[in-house]
Amino acid sequence: MNLKGKMYLTASLSAALLFFTALPYYPVAATEVNAAMKTSTDSVAPTSPQNLTAFSKTASTIGLIWDKSSDDAGVKGYDIYENGSKIGSSDYLKQYDVAKTNYTVTGLKPNTKYKFKVVARDASGNVSKSSKQISVITSNEGKIFNVKDYGAVGDGVTKDSKAIQDAIDACTPGGVVVIPAGTYYTAPLKLKSDMTLNIEKGATILASRDVSDYKIIDSRWEGTSFKSYMSIITAIDAKNLNIIGEGTIDGNAGPIKEAAAGETEDAYGYPVNKVNVSGEYDYNMGKYNGDKSTAVNFDMGLWWDNPKATDPTKQTARPRTIQLINCDGVLIQGVKVQNSPSWTIHPLYSKNITIADVNVKNPSSPVDSPNTDGLDPDSVDNLLVVNTTFDVGDDCIAIKSGKDAEGRKIGIPSSNITIRNSLMLHGHGGVTLGSEMSGGINNINIKDDIFDSTNIGVRLKTLRGRGGVIQDVVFDNIMMKNISSDAFNINSNYSSNGAPLPYTGVVDETTPTIKNLVFKNITAIGAKEASFFQGLQEMPVDGVTLSNINVTADKGLFAQYVKNVKMDHVNINNGNMFQADSTFDNLQYGGIIDGVKSFNGNENSTIKLPSNLFNSSKGSITAWVNSGKNFKSESGTIMYGKSNDSANNYSLSFTKDKKVQFNMKVNSKTVNFVTNDKYNGNAWHKITVTWDAKGEEKLYIDGKVKASDTVNLDTAAISDISYIGKSDNLSEYYKGDMKDINIYNYVISPEEITSK
Questions:
Q1: 363-375 tens-digit pLDDT
Q2: Which residues make Cβ contacts (< 8 Å) with residue 152, sequence separation at least 6?
C-alpha cells in the first residue's frame, strides 16, 4: 500500500485487573526529554513518531496512542520505552503491510508515575529518534467485590443474576466487581457510577433466554423513542464507569428461525410475509403519511415482542448487548462481545466514551443476525474508538442522532467522534453515518482503519423528510479490500428506513444536508463500484475533497447532484475514472503532476488522463510550462483530448514556430487560437484556457489575455480520451518541463488566472 506512507493499526492488549478511572481522550501533557535508547544515524532511518498521548489508564494499565512517522514508508513496527527501558513493540500486520500505532502497557503499580516514549523501526533495524516523552500516573487501587463471594456459581446453567447484581449493588465508590473464570448465565445487569466491572480471562457473561428476565425500559431504536428490552449490560445516568477485562459478554442470540414450507408463522410468531420462507427480510420500513412524518414498521427491530400487535407502542425492541443511556465518562476495554440480539454496543445521549481493544463478533449473514451493528453512537459527544475489531451482520459502526421530526426536536447531535486503528470485517458498511441523522452529525474523524470484506466501505445516507446536517467529516489513511459494493457511498435518497418525501423543490427543515467531506490517503483494492454519490436536486452534496485516492473497481465514480468536488492525485482504474452518466457541478481535478515533470518527447513520458473530465459547455485548463529548456524545432502537444467517436476534440500545444495554440472542435463548430508571441526562452509560463456556456473562449499567457472569441459550441463530451504530453496520432510529443496541471469543468476566477 502506498498512500504517502503506510497505514497503521493499534496493538493488541490485555485488560486491567484493578479499578481505574476512565479518561476522556484528552492528550496527556508531554515533556521533551533526551532519548534513552540508541538511535540510528542512517540517513534513511524513519522519522520520529508524533503526538504520543495516553488515552486511558487504570490502576495497572495505561493505553498509549501516537501518530505515525511523517515519512513512514518501510516502518515495520514501533518500540515502546518506559522510564528509559524497552518494554514492548507494536505489531506489524503483514497481510495489510501495517504497523500498529497504539499499545497498552500492563502490569503497572497503582498511583505511580510512569514515563513513556516511542521510536519507529524499519525492516533493516534502523530506528528513529524518539517521540516526545509523556508522564502518566496510574489510578488508585479500588476495593474488590468478587461475585463468587456473593453466591455466583459460574457453571453456565445456574442463573447467577442475583449474585452478580448483589455484588454490583454492594460495590463502594472506586470499587471493582470481579467476574472470575467461568460461565455466568444471567439476566440483564445494571451498572452504576464510580465502579469497574472486570470480566477476567476465561470468564463469560452469558445472557438469559428467558424473556421474563428482561425488564422493559425507555430507549431509542433507529432514531425514534421506543420501549426496549433491557440490555444484557445496561447503565443509565452513570458516571466514571469502566467495563474491562479479557473475558466475554455473550448476548446468546440465535439466528432467525424461518417458517417451514406451508406454515403461516415463523418460530417467533411472525407472519410469513415478514420473514419469508427463504429467510429474507422485507426491508420496506415505512410509508409517507402526508404530514412530513414517516410511519415506522419496527418488525426488524423486534425479537421478543408481540408481532401481532398493530399499535407500535405495544411492541418492544430487541435488547442490545451493552447500552449506555445518558452516561458520562465510560471506558469499555479489552472484552469480547458476541452474539448480540441487536445492536451490540449502543451509547445513547452519552458523552466522553472510550472503546478500546474490543472484539465484536456476530454472525456475518444479515439473514441470521439482522440489525447486529457493532457500534451505534446515538446522539453522543466525544467518543474515541481505538484498536477494535468488528465482524458483524450489519454496519460495523453506524453513527446516528435521531429520526425525522422527533430527532430534530430533541436536537442532540453526534459530534466529536474519532475512530482510529480499527478493523472492520464483514458488515453492510465499514463506517456509516445515518440514515437517522436528524439531530445532526458533525466533526467526525475516521483514521488509520482497515475495511476488509464489507459490503460498502464509506457510507453516508439520508432522505427527504429527515432534515439535519452531516458535516465536517474526514476519512484519512484507510485501506479497503474485497468491497462487494461501493467503496464510497453518499446517498440522499436512502429508502430502507422510511420512504422519502416527494420532490417539491422546496428547502425547509425536512431537507437533509451533507457537506464538507474529506477523503484522503485511501486505497481500495477490489470493489464493484468506486463511488455512488447522489445528492438531492434541491440540496446537492456540497464540498467533497478526494486526495491521494487509488481505487480498482468494476465501475468508476458515479455522481449526481454533487457540487464543489476537488480531486487531487486521484486514480480510479488507471484513468478510467468516471461512469458515463455522472454529472458534477464544479468539479476540480488537480494535482495531475506532482512537482516538476520533464517530458522527453516520447511515449514513456506522457500521462494518460481520466476520461470524461469535462465537456464543451464550460471548463478551464491551467498548466505551467517551460518550453525552452529542451524545446527544439518540432511542435509539442501540452494537452490533448477527444470523444470516443473522434467527432469532438481539443488540443493545447506549441507550434513549430514556438507559438501557443489552442483548438477545440465540437461537431461542426471550432475555436482556434494562436498567439502572436513566441515562447522560446528558458522560462516558465502559465498557460490558461477557459470556455463557458455563453460561448466566450479565452487564452491567457501569464495571466494576460492573448486571444479570445465567441463561439456557441454544442454541448458534447470532448475528453473521453485525454493525454498530457502528446497528440492523438502520437507524432507531436512535448519536450520540456511542466508542473501544476489543473483541469476544471467550470471557469476559474480571474484571481486564479492572474495569480502567480
A1: 876 555 678 899 9
A2: 160, 163, 164, 167, 179, 182, 184
